[in-house]
């Protein structure tokens, strides 16, 4: 419904929005009814319960006819409520994007909290007690893991590792500084600033320190939510985000430490020392657990070639188990999850099918998105739920201290860190890092977990935590975008990762390692190189199935790029329109052309006469590879069977075989010396192109059409001069290129080249284009191409 | 352990080389490099290619030949010479190493641009093996083949196609060519266009070595031929 309204313009949008709001309120009311009918604490429960009982009773007593329509809400209550909440969250996400300018000004997280407040308000307004939705168990075991897994699985490893030192210093030292600063000063303020009889003065030092440790941790959920929309450069993003992930270990340790101390009531030096030790245990233990599960997952994925369907399940299960296992031992679950995702990713991706990869990606994105939305809505509801104890002094002092501590911490640490960094952090960077230290739901949940006996001031703490969260998310979240614009902070570059980049990155890596070796200096390039070699030699062999284990990274990357480009090419209209920078999309092995249900006119498939079919077949049979085996069941109107499932490794093997047959085909000169076949009608060209992903139409030489001749594998040619002309033309043309076309050999070229070379080149070019399973010598497959 | 007298005599010269290019490295590190140089050369005045090739750690490096050649390349000595030397002294060694210095954060924008150009020029020289100021497709192919040379049986076709794809990409995105005849820019990259191409490389972070960490403790003394 919303999708249709969008196209109708502003009024449509308003209508959509109205509908969404109506739905919200509907749900709110339904939910209250649900709450009403089931809430144990509400007095109405008794009524409805008895009402139901009497209903049933009356049914039994009067021996009525079989109840055609019956109401039994109890059975489905819990799943129903959960689904309602999730539905509400998703509709909210939809709704925000319908309102034209709202999402630019206000970050989504703020809006979601407001919605949560509204819903909470509605529930309270109807006289019910608001359910404690942000239950810590629910939060830590259900809502948080998908977000962290999404972050960990897609963590950009290279920038993370390059900045690991900086991130660790911010995470560990920064959080410690924040915790002690806020806690200590707060205690001081409580003791000194207020009268001795006030409630504040009863807050002990340990309680303050515990509060400080809860409030000082930067929250990954909030950071993700806000930073996602501002698109700052990769360095800053990874610094703040990495810090928010890694400070979990510190938070866990401090929390348990202070909680235990508060319970016991005394601190000894030994306990303090044990605390430090436990930090290392928690952090490293978490990482170890994660790595273990990651390796297990990678190993399992090696054997899944026959049951592709459950591959994503393994990824999710192993990761979740890593998280839970770490939580058993009070280790850092977040670090376990990150380590698991990051470790298993390269190996799992080499093993699983393309579809599983897409599934994993989209499931993770979906779950993390829903989780995030729910978390913010629940924050709003929990705010309304209370219980609150507002204390002006405490709250304002907390907010101010948090800000001050963050700024001082970042500035001080950057000063030290810059001595060791090659690319220094500028003042602008420091400001963004300090400003981006958002607090979120983790702090609230931790506060919620506090034991009431040890912490009689729990409500004050909770109120203060919520205020800080609101302040950071609303004020800082809303203003960070205009500030980023104002300060002209470098934004994320949209350039896609290209093959050039990969080549040069690898080249530079090796260069620097070599220079370090010449200097005799064991720098971090040296160790990185050692790790890579170890990985290649031993680990990959164990964890990656089949041939892929030996594939060097550059080649793997190249193939991945090829696939992507090829799929893009096909999806954008069967090769008629080409994306702007297309290097080598010519080895399109496994493309699944879009079903021809798309009504685009260029894909109209005409009826071919028998003669023309024969012609086409003859040409293609001799010039092209024997790849038609794969298309045996081809029908113009249906999908090509997805060869992905057969395993990419086979493809690469076959590619190798292909080149052995090169020589054989060289003998088949007959067709190559024949001048171009009579120019086919454009529809036929397109038909061929549209129907066979690997066909390249032999387009009639026409000067108006800019052509890009792709000469990608010319083992004989000393120089690819051919490309020059075409590129020259292509560069001069302002219009879009018309797709990859193979020119018939007889087309006059500006470069002077011996004709045999041309032929050989063409033939290899054709072969290269249609690279795939080795052509067999026999030419029997007649009917393979067109039905 | 090293020729202290000789070193002190020429120290001012070394510092001059170093200062010329906004070096952020101290005298201590020059001393360390000198120590290493003496090690490599067996206490002689100059080192030859064989000395460098004897370093065992370099064996695993797929581009070791290019690296060693770069040291002996006259173009990296900031003079307008072309060709290669047979032996180099410490000054030339230092000159080549200076390409990898981290840039001073107090440097001005122009200085940064100069340093960046120098680093890129070094990279360019490494690719351009025939000293003609132009990188051709073949030279690029050699690069890719070298990179893949460590991984067992290279499929030469794949290596070539990777190089071709990369060149295509460059050519297709290099729209503002100063040359009049567009055909010249595509496969042969001149120095100017390569600067454009490589703007995505954060050259400062990628091509810098932290000399700060270098001291005699981290240097492997005496393990040259192990």
Automatic annotation (TrEMBL), chain A:
GO biological process assignments: regulation of intracellular pH; sodium ion import across plasma membrane
Cation/H+ exchanger transmembrane domain mapped to chain residues: 87-485
Coiled coil: 610-637
Main location: membrane
Domain Sodium/hydrogen exchanger regulatory region, residue spans: 581-684
One Gene Ontology molecular-function label: sodium:proton antiporter activity
Catalytically driven reaction(s): Li(+)(out) + H(+)(in) = Li(+)(in) + H(+)(out); Na(+)(in) + H(+)(out) = Na(+)(out) + H(+)(in); Li(+)(in) + Na(+)(out) = Li(+)(out) + Na(+)(in)
Transmembrane segments: 16-36, 105-126, 138-155, 167-187, 199-218, 238-258, 270-300, 320-343, 364-386, 392-418, 430-448, 460-484
Subcellular location, record wording: Basolateral cell membrane
Membrane topology: Multi-pass membrane protein
Cellular component, GO annotation: basolateral plasma membrane
Pfam families registered for this protein in UniProt: Na_H_Exchanger (PF00999), NEXCaM_BD (PF16644)
Compositional bias per record (Basic and acidic residues), positions renumbered to this chain: 747-765
Domain of life, source organism: Eukaryota
Acidic residues composition bias: residue spans: 777-787
Positions of the UniProt region annotated as Disordered: 587-607, 714-787
Keywords (A to Z) from UniProt: Antiport, Calmodulin-binding, Cell membrane, Coiled coil, Glycoprotein, Ion transport, Lipoprotein, Membrane, Palmitate, Phosphoprotein, Sodium, Sodium transport, Transmembrane, Transmembrane helix, Transport, Ubl conjugation
Sequence similarity: Belongs to the monovalent cation:proton antiporter 1 (CPA1) transporter (TC 2.A.36) family.
The name this protein goes by in its record: Sodium/hydrogen exchanger
Automatic annotation (TrEMBL), chain B:
InterPro entries reported for this sequence: CHP3 (IPR052490), EF-hand-dom_pair (IPR011992), EF_Hand_1_Ca_BS (IPR018247), EF_hand_dom (IPR002048)
PROSITE patterns linked to this entry: EF_HAND_1, EF_HAND_2
Domain EF-hand: 115-150
Highest taxon above the source species: Eukaryota
Alphabetical keyword list: Calcium, Cell membrane, Cell projection, Cytoplasm, Differentiation, Lipoprotein, Membrane, Metal-binding, Myristate, Nucleus, Protein kinase inhibitor
Intracellular or extracellular location(s): Cell projection, Lamellipodium; Cell projection, Ruffle membrane; Cytoplasm; Membrane
Membrane-protein topology: Lipid-anchor
GO molecular function terms attached to this record: calcium ion binding; protein kinase inhibitor activity
Pfam families the record matches: EF-hand_6
One GO CC term, this protein: cytoplasm
GO biological process per UniProt: cell differentiation
Homology family: Belongs to the calcineurin regulatory subunit family. CHP subfamily.
PANTHER family registered for this protein in UniProt: CALCINEURIN B HOMOLOGOUS PROTEIN 3
Protein name: Calcineurin B homologous protein 3
Organism: Maylandia zebra
